[in-house]
Design goal:
CATH topology of chain A: Alpha-Beta Plaits
GO molecular function, one term (chain B): cysteine desulfurase activity
Number of strands of chain A: 4
Strand order of the largest sheet of chain A: 2-3-1-4
Number of strands of chain B: 13
Cofactor (chain B): pyridoxal 5'-phosphate
Largest sheet of chain A: 4 strands, antiparallel
Strand content of chain B: 5-15%
Largest sheet of chain B: 7 strands, mixed
CATH architecture of chain A: 2-Layer Sandwich
Oligomer: heterodimer
Distance between the termini of chain B: 33 Å
Largest interface: A-B, 22 and 30 residues
Keywords (chain B): Pyridoxal phosphate
Organism (chain B): Propionivibrio dicarboxylicus
CATH class of chain A: Alpha Beta
EC number (chain B): 2.8.1.7
Number of domains of chain A: 1
Order of helices and strands of chain A: EHEEHE
Number of helices of chain A: 2
Helix content of chain A: 25-40%
Shape of chain B: globular
Structural class of chain B: alpha/beta
Chain lengths: ~80, ~400
């Protein structure tokens, strides 16, 4: 990752996180499923960690797929 | 396989045996994966979630659905049909179905009818076939849904759901959604919900999709607005846990409670196994089994076949009655004396038997599967011939 501070894609449901992992992986975007950091949400599920400079490309890749982003940190 | 002592001809109830990869997947899910999908962020929960997602993707691929998130998992096709029917229909709506339906369709429809939903049951012919024009003629401006099986679970008869779907899309009087019960057809007849203009596809995992029991679901086509569908159940989804209201997004809106992860892993394996096969060869085998049973049974004096008697017009389900012998006695003796395992009676489908003229006695149903050995079919035909002779002594 080009930035030591990672970025996160948050989802309303882990079902969407798993879908996003698959879809973004198919686009050669490096993402990793991790527990949602407590400072971002009280949710007990998972989110995707990625390089900050990949946030825009990831959000664009998920547009129109049915996967709903609940948040991007840091915000786009 | 030669010299088999029993033959399993109840694949229309549930397929057996399963491909070894299905068994392996279930065992692996239980022994190596564990975890509750979507309920935590630890490795086992994530692994379980990936199993479920893989199954969702396999179902979508198998049925031509564009978005795996529109695959809603449940326990079986009955649950899926209840979700579609009870979730969509309101008093004042009109729904059209056929006279060949299973009770998983008819019972929720009759309940809804008692609550103010208007129901039209279009009569099928005596072999179970359905004229699309009669379905179209039954439409009203307030018709919300056309709900049909793709194949009869009693006679195997194929219904022209794709033709009906395409004609419904062109209809100007009403714009009903098409719900298809694929319990008896999925895995045998190719289904593509886009090509076949199916809006809601209810499926079960444990029949010709070769998965374990306790798996099934409903696919929501792109014309279906999930907000118009009331959930059958509400509860924990692992998402939006801070809220006491049900999530509205797919698939969580309709998937409360822990899913059957091991079962879905098995279903995924069954679907992947099917996708890797030569579909034409599989269909050929289904048709060959059907042809052999039709020809073998039709040649026995005292046997009456019920259904199309044509593999091109049915799935591999063959129903018959035997003169001089009740279905229950025949079924008992086929099992006890000849090792032929089949299903007799009404097959949870009284409407279908009324249509076929076999109500209330029912029929003897032979349903071979992909793994039924040809010797087994010969054994079953020979057993029926012996029973027929004994009935006429």
């Amino acid at each position: 990752m080009s930035d030591p501070t990672p970025a996160y894609l948050l989802f309303h449901t882990s079902n969407h996180a798993f879908r996003a992992e698959k879809l973004l992986g198919a686009r050669q975007l490096a993402v990793k499923l991790v527990p949602v950091p407590r400072h971002l949400s009280s949710d007990c599920g998972v989110c995707l960690r990625l390089a900050p400079d990949a946030r825009h490309a990831a959000a664009e890749a998920l547009a129109g797929t049915g996967v709903e982003l609940a948040g991007v940190h840091p915000p786009l | 396989m030669s010299g088999c002592s029993t033959v399993y001809l109840d694949n229309a109830a549930t397929s057996w045996p399963k491909p070894p990869v299905v068994v392996d997947a279930v065992v692996r899910a239980l022994t190596e994966v564990g975890g509750n999908p979507g309920r935590a962020g630890h490795a086992r929960s994530i692994a379980a979630g990936r199993l479920v997602d893989a199954a969702r993707e396999a179902v979508a691929e198998f049925f031509g659905a564009n978005d795996p998130l529109r695959v809603v998992f449940g326990a079986n096709v009955t649950e899926a049909l209840n979700l579609a029917l009870c979730g969509l229909l309101r008093p004042g709506d009109h729904v059209v179905t056929s006279s060949i339906e299973h009770n998983s369709m008819m019972r929720p429809l009759r309940q809804l009818e008692s609550e103010g939903v208007a129901l039209t049951v279009v009569a099928c012919a005596a072999d179970g076939s359905l004229d699309p024009a009669q379905v179209l003629a039954a439409l009203r401006p307030e018709t919300r849904l056309v709900a049909l099986s793709q194949a009869s679970n009693v006679a195997g008869t194929l219904l022209p759901v794709a033709e009906i779907g395409r004609r419904l899309r062109a209809c100007t009087l009403a714009q009903p959604l098409l719900l298809v019960d694929s319990a008896a057809s999925a895995g045998i007849v190719p289904i593509d919900i886009e090509r076949d203009a199916i809006d809601l596809l209810a499926f079960t995992g444990h029949k010709s999709l070769l998965g374990p029991t306790g798996t099934g679901g409903l696919i929501l086509g792109r014309r279906v607005d999930p907000a118009q569908l009331r959930p059958l159940k509400r509860g924990g989804t692992g998402s939006l846990s801070e809220q006491e209201e049900q999530p509205r997004f797919l698939p969580d809106a309709f998937e409360s409670g822990t899913l059957n992860v091991a079962g879905l892993a098995g279903l995924d394996a069954g679907l992947r196994w099917l996708l890797a096969q030569d579909h034409a060869a599989l269909r050929q085998q289904h048709d060959a089994n059907t042809r052999r049973l039709i020809d073998g049974l039709a040649a026995i004096p005292g046997v009456t076949l019920h259904g199309p008697r044509d593999p091109a017009r049915q799935v591999d389900i063959v129903s018959f009655t035997l003169a001089g012998l009740s279905c229950s006695e025949a079924g008992f003796r086929l099992d006890e004396e000849f090792g032929v395992e089949c299903r007799i009676g009404l097959h949870c489908a009284p409407a279908a038997h009324r249509t076929l003229g076999t109500f209330p006695e029912g029929t003897i149903r032979f349903a071979p599967g992909l793994f039924t050995p040809s010797e087994g079919l010969e054994m079953a035909i020979d057993a029926v011939a012996r029973l027929a002779r004994s009935a006429h002594v």
